[in-house]
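Good day; I would like, with your permission, to put a structural problem before you. I would ask you to consider whether the tokens describe a fold that such a sequence might reasonably adopt. The full record is reproduced below for your convenience:
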Amino acid sequence: MSIQTAIVTGANSGMGLATTIELARQGYHVIMACRSEKRGQEALQQALNQSGSSKIELMLCDLGSLDSIRKFAHRFREHYDQLDVLVNNAGVVMMKRKETSDGFEQCIGINHLGHFLLTLLLVEPLKASNQARIVNVSSGAYKVGRIHFDDPHLHKGYNPFKSYAQSKLANVLFTRSLARRLEGTSVTVNCLHPGAVGTSIGVDRSTGFGTRIMALVSKLPFFQSPEEGARTALYLATSPDVKGVTERYFYQQKEQPLKDHALDDEAAQRLWTWSEEQVGLGENERI
């Protein structure tokens, strides 16, 4: 039996690193998609040491750069014909409005548009797998989110929760749209809420403030460890219990009903069309 291949985005810390380590322990060849060479190399050594596996590699991918995403996908396809698991884990929360190198508001740009492009560029190697799984890490914040089609990059009235909730609703709508477009293939697509997890998401590394805040809140009793937070993503990526299950939303390894606004097919189609335009998707890249 050939070794299965997995990609984990945001794999240099938190749930991404925990997911990488456990997938490697289960025998997957894991590619850590990370933005920073330095932090990525440090995390790679930690993953190799803790997993006991040598089948882990680092490939740089900045989800805030369409050019970087395209280069990553091209490198992957040069070396691999098949992809069995894609865990779209990376995410940000921005206290102040900032833009990606392509001019996107960072939350919608990284949390949604970056993963949107990456996933579509990897559809062919995913289809080549006997049973590929796409796992999108969303959040319960989707429940209060809405897609601000009149101002999706939030030039007006920005606040952190508004931007984050919008991006997490986008993750859910993307999951549903993609699952329908991949009907009849070997690829399943699901999303999840990991729960409250003590990670570095949203930490502004230019100051010590965010780091100090996370050090405090991660000790609160209702905060999970990254390993605990990664359990549902790992369940969706590997468990035989969800083989063939697609277009679903999970929390604590159980399927959960979605709120009505996340079941809005018109909004999902509108978001898909807008996303294609934003990332400059070519005709031969569309599904």
In short: The beta strands are 5-9, 29-34, 56-60, 85-88, 132-137, 187-193, 248-251, 254-255. Residues 200-221 have pLDDT under 50 and may be disordered. The first strand starts at residue 5 and ends at 9.
